[in-house]
Amino acid sequence: MGNKSSPELTLSFLLITALCLEAVHIRSRPYKSIDKMNWTEARLYCQSHYVDLATWNTVKKGALAEYFTEHGVSQVWIGLHRDPEKDSVWKWINIKTGEGVSGDDLSHSSDWADKHPKSHCAVIGDDQMWHSTHCSKKNYVYCSEGDRITYHKVDLTWYGASQYCQDMNGNLTTITKTITSYFESSGWIGLYRQAGHTWSWIGNLSFNYSDWAPGEPVTEDCGLFDPVTEEWYSTACSEELQPLCFKDNLMVVNENKTWEEALSYCRNMTTSDFNYDILSPHYSDYSYLRERIYSRATTDEVWIGLRFLGGKWWLVSGEELNQEMLPECPSQWKHCGTLSKHDTNNWITRDCSERRNFICYRDYNKGGNQKL
Fold it and tell me: How many CB atoms are closer than 10 A to CB 188?
């Protein structure tokens, strides 16, 4: 099936393209809710009203200072979470799928207030009750060898204490009944929690008995940002804070249209404040765009502003193309370009009469409102 453009459409397209010579820039802006909510609610709120919780991959940290000052923002939720599969690892949320976390390990980032986010381990307090604390803190140690519990006045982290007890031919103490008479003072016991999981004893013993102090245990799996210190803090996900969301100037349209219909759809949204057009992406934006369309587009590929006309490939934005990267004489009327939601670093040429989703792009109309 073919899609032969009329001379009028071709001429109109070329004239409009010639007038659109400004570069296309994908812009992201932060937004916050008036209401406070826990981290899970915050993420759902951002996904419903914007794109997602903000990450340093989607908003510029340096640009936040002005926003926070203007809006009087205090501590806010950001898209930072402990990896449920590995307790010592922190990652950004997965924008691509809208679920879970992905990317590099951020646990050693200099953005942390204490330079090292902590995991959760249990210590016997001076009150002879259990308290949850950071595993990297140093405490004395309770070791067990069979039924015998010994107290060791050596300052060790929880992991160091575990190895210390093993070197003594034992293990960190596990407690399955009330035996407070054994405990002289504060010290590590063999109880720990991995992110997203329940508390467990060393050796995977059943966790049936507990002696937590009031208000315990406290677990810190979610990340917040403090604009005063400009640093990250780990805190309990049940804490209620305002979410920091982000929104960009893209619109993924879940309507299946031909390329020309998609072009008209986008341009017909233009107002006195904003110009709209079908997106003409840069190569540098492809990774982000694939994440944006992966769970939001209902077709595997989406139309972009790439068109073959008059024996040459054009971008709607008017920017120059590397013609060598595109077929010199496209066959079977594959005169229009798409972007795949799957791993590919290039555009794909398709028959313009095929129907699929597309991406509209919004930019400021000169003299109009300068807010996204």
Answer: 31
Structural domain contains residue 209? no
Mean pLDDT to the nearest integer, 69-95? 88
In this predicted model, which residue has the larger pLDDT, 350 or 134? Answer: 350
The structure tokens listed for 240 are 């209620």
- 97 in the same domain as 234: yes
User: Residue with structure tokens 């399955």?
Assistant: 176
Quote the DSSP letter at residue 340. E
Q: Does residue 234 sit in the same domain as residue 295?
A: no
The tokens of 87 are what? Answer: 């307790």
- CB-facing half-sphere around the CA of 169: CA atoms within 13 A: 3
**CA distance linking residue 308 with residue 267, whole number of Å:** 19
Q: Using only the alpha carbons of the chain, give its radius of gyration.
A: 28
Across the range 291-317, mean pLDDT stands at: 91
Name the residue among 183, 236, 242 with its Cα closest to residue 42.
242
CB atoms within 10 A of CB 176: 11
For residues 303 and 226, state if they share a domain: no
CATH number assigned to the domain comprising residue 322: 3.10.100.10
Task: Give me the domain span that covers residue 137.
Answer: 120-201
Q: State whether 169 and 255 are in the same domain.
A: no
Instruction: Let me know whether 164 and 103 are in one domain.
Output: no
pLDDT tens for residues 323-332?
677 777 787 7
